[in-house]
């Protein structure tokens, strides 16, 4: 399958222009890790582990770098048309690329030995969690 070529789009547009996500990442999410991807009758779920400090402080999360250094954004998607996954067990952090093809959106990531691409109709924010990634602390 070839790469889906579309017009570049901000992640926030792919994520349904969610107000909360836009408030914590107005400039985009930066590097991300697709930590979970699931399928269910044409719908899908995706958890994105974000390693960029949020622009907005969320008191219940605590202090960035002390109480957490990763934000997990959880989404449910619908209108799934294409899934491309190569070497899932080699996935790592990478730039999250978003684009639009007519009334569909595409989220993709690529690494030296792996690739992920999904073409879908809608993505709806479900919630967020945080955790400390000891390796990311440096």
Give structural notes:
The protein is mainly β. It has one domain (7-131). 10% of the residues lie in helices and 46% in strands. The protein has three helices and ten strands. The chain has a five-stranded antiparallel β-sheet with strand order 1-7-8-9-5, with no helix packed on it. It has a five-stranded antiparallel β-sheet with strand order 6-2-3-4-10, with no helix packed on it.
Keywords:
mainly beta; 5-stranded antiparallel sheet; 3 helices; 138 residues; globular
Short description:
The protein has 138 residues and is mainly beta. It is built from three helices and ten strands.
Q: What is this structure's SSE topology?
A:
Layout: E1 7-8, H1 11-14, H2 19-24, E2 31-40, E3 43-50, E4 70-78, E5 82-86, E6 94-95, E7 97-101, E8 104-110, E9 115-120, E10 122-131, H3 134-137
Antiparallel strand pairs: 1-7, 2-3, 2-6, 3-4, 4-10, 5-9, 7-8, 8-9
- How many structural domains in the coordinates? 1
Strand line-up in the sheet with most strands: 1-7-8-9-5
- Helix share, percent: 10-25%
Alpha carbon gyration radius: 15 Å
- The number of E-state strands comes to 10
SS-derived structural category: mainly beta
Largest beta-sheet details: 5 strands, antiparallel
The separation of the N and C termini measures 38 Å
Rough outline: globular
Contiguous uncertain segments of 5+ residues? 1-7
User: Can you give the mean pLDDT?
Assistant: 87
- β-strand amount: over 45%
Number of helices: 3
Order of helices and strands: EHHEEEEEEEEEH
């Amino acid at each position: 399958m070839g790469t889906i070529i579309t017009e570049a789009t901000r992640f926030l547009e792919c994520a349904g222009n969610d107000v909360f996500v836009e408030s914590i990442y107005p400039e985009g999410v930066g590097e991300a890790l697709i930590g979970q991807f699931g399928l269910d009758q044409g719908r899908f779920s995706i958890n994105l582990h974000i390693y960029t400090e949020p622009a907005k402080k969320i008191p219940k999360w605590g202090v960035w770098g002390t109480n957490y250094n990763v934000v997990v954004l959880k989404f449910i998607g619908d209108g799934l048309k294409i899934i491309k996954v190569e070497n899932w067990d080699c996935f790592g952090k990478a730039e999250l690329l978003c684009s639009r093809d007519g009334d569909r959106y595409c989220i993709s990531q690529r690494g030296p030995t792996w690739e992920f691409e999904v073409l879908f109709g809608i993505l709806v924010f479900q919630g967020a969690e945080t955790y400390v990634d000891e390796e990311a602390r440096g």
